[in-house]
Amino acid sequence: MKNQPKSAYVHIPFCTQICYYCDFAKVFIKNQPVDAYVATLLGEFELAEISELETLYIGGGTPTALSAAQLDRLLAGLTQNLALEKLQEFTVEANPGDLTDEKIAVLKKNHVNRVSLGVQTFNDKLLKKIGRSHTSQDVFDTITKLRAAGFDNITIDLIYALPSQTLADVKRDIEILLQLDLPHVALYSLILENHTIFMNKMRRGKLDLPDEEADFEMYNAIIDCLEKAGYAHYEISNFGKEGYESKHNLMYWQNAEYYGFGAGASGYVNGVRYKNHGPIHHYLETIDKKVTQEKLSQKEQMEEELFLGLRKKSGVNTQAFTEKFGQDFDKIYGQTVSTLIDKKLLERSHDSIFMTRQGLMLGNDVFEAFLLD
Ligand code: SF4
């Protein structure tokens, strides 16, 4: 399977709550055809005839919104034909409130070795304000149970710049995170998306969000605290202890190919980016699950290589870029790189270009500069 992707993403679009900021492809789980969905998804996976994967990532939605029996069927079905010795990282996203002992046992039994918890904040008032149904105590209990079951590779997602959140609140979240001594964390600034409850509130003037300056201040404080505590800031939003960087996510940022399964999932196979039908009934009813397929031009591939690669702290190796695309990197981008270095958004060392702290904060400005005419 030389040219086949070594990674797969599986989408579970069900949630037991609908968070006020979320625009992911998901629906409230009640009365949804979950069993039919799992069966269809396993059928889609089987058709791809995959025998080896290095990383497998089950995201959502909330995979742990499934019952223990449904989760077991899904995970066992996905792994039954895989060469497990090749599977280095098998991640399942989980909601702290959903993870019962039974579900944790299902994860363990089915070779999951990394759990990603959607924590968002340890502040119970803020959790309520953003529509989450778990509490900080649920998070602590879940982490204790996961560790007792033998999971040491636990990552959590936190969000900052939440409504009315202060710098002191963010620092408090980081303090608690450090006390938990987890090997990995991803921190995202709240982004207001269309068609969310928060966007509606904002339009009605009822959302008190920190301004851009406060957002930068929070991001700076997060990086300082986590780096001081021994976490490598290896991607714009991701921090890991040595050896715990996410292999699956690094695969995306290295612009590698991967399968995507499930409603609304995206994949990248044989130079084609595709997206599956999003609405669950469309996904269930169509034979060909893909709704869009786009063969990328070389220009698009080069742009993606830079946008994705520059997200990593280590940036992009210009020599490898030249070899991969058969085009001299400096001939195409030399001027852009010089301009960004003058603006202190980019640095260059030997064959690598990478973003400065300022560049990481203003990532979109950097990415835009690399768009080709
Ligand atoms: S943030 Fe996660 S749990 Fe909340 S609605 Fe979105 S997908 Fe569901």
UniProtKB/TrEMBL annotation:
GO terms classed as biological process = porphyrin-containing compound biosynthetic process
Taken from the record, one Pfam family name reads: Radical_SAM
**Which GO molecular-function terms appear in the entry?**
4 iron, 4 sulfur cluster binding; coproporphyrinogen oxidase activity; metal ion binding
Q: Where found in the cell?
A: Cytoplasm
Q: From which domain of life does this come?
A: Bacteria
GO CC annotation: what is one? cytoplasm
Q: Which InterPro entries match?
A: Aldolase_TIM, Coproporphyrinogen-III_oxidase, Elp3/MiaA/NifB-like_rSAM, HemN_C, HemW-like, rSAM, rSAM_sf
Name the major location. Answer: cytoplasm
Query: Which UniProt keywords are listed?
Result: 4Fe-4S, Chaperone, Cytoplasm, Heme, Iron, Iron-sulfur, Metal-binding, S-adenosyl-L-methionine
Q: Which residues form the Radical SAM core domain?
A: 1-232
Q: Which PANTHER family match?
A: COPROPORPHYRINIGEN III OXIDASE, RADICAL S-ADENOSYL METHIONINE DOMAIN-CONTAINING PROTEIN 1, MITOCHONDRIAL
Family according to the record: Belongs to the anaerobic coproporphyrinogen-III oxidase family. HemW subfamily.
Q: What does this protein do?
A: Probably acts as a heme chaperone, transferring heme to an unknown acceptor. Binds one molecule of heme per monomer, possibly covalently. Binds 1 [4Fe-4S] cluster. The cluster is coordinated with 3 cysteines and an exchangeable S-adenosyl-L-methionine.
Q: Which protein is depicted?
A: Heme chaperone HemW
